[in-house]
Design a protein that fits this description.
mainly alpha, globular
Length: 148
């Protein structure tokens, strides 16, 4: 029962962190970047900020999840994949599958599908990288052995 409570708690904290980071950190930084960067670099800055925000969110989910962080991060990723909350760039797996079907029927959609696929891989990669670094690792003791 305790494992499930810590999983639910970490997922709720992850959603709070995601929306807090997206609206309180990413948007002001993106507005600042829009003033400083050329307009052609703005999508790149947006993707980099989204990856960093998802990495921080993955760290929060893994850190607060208790003994099994991979379960909590996987559930969080599935919840993020099936629903689009207006975050930019959007993680929208149903749209990605629709784009895949469209690109199989008409080759003009192939470039859009490839770009969206790479974007999704980078965003989920940021989430799982943050989760990896958020896991509590055991401290190893430094031992000095005496050789006789």
């Amino acid at each position: 029962m305790r494992v499930w409570w810590s999983t639910v708690r970490s997922i709720l904290l992850g959603w709070i962190a995601l929306f807090g980071i997206a609206y309180l950190v990413q948007r002001p930084l993106l507005r600042l970047a829009a003033r400083l960067l050329d307009s052609s670099w703005l999508p790149t800055a947006q993707l980099a900020l989204a990856c960093a925000g998802l990495a921080a969110t993955g760290w929060v989910v893994a850190r607060w999840s208790g003994p099994r962080p991979s379960i909590a991060v996987f559930i969080f990723a599935v919840m993020l994949a099936v629903s689009n909350f207006g975050l930019e760039p959007a993680i929208d797996i149903p749209w990605l599958f629709k784009l895949l079907l469209d690109s199989l029927q008409n080759a003009r959609y192939l470039q859009s599908f490839a770009l969206d696929l790479v974007t999704h891989v980078l965003l989920f990669g940021g989430l799982f990288a943050g989760a990896f670094f958020g896991q509590a690792h055991e401290q190893t003791e430094a031992r000095i052995f005496r050789l006789n």
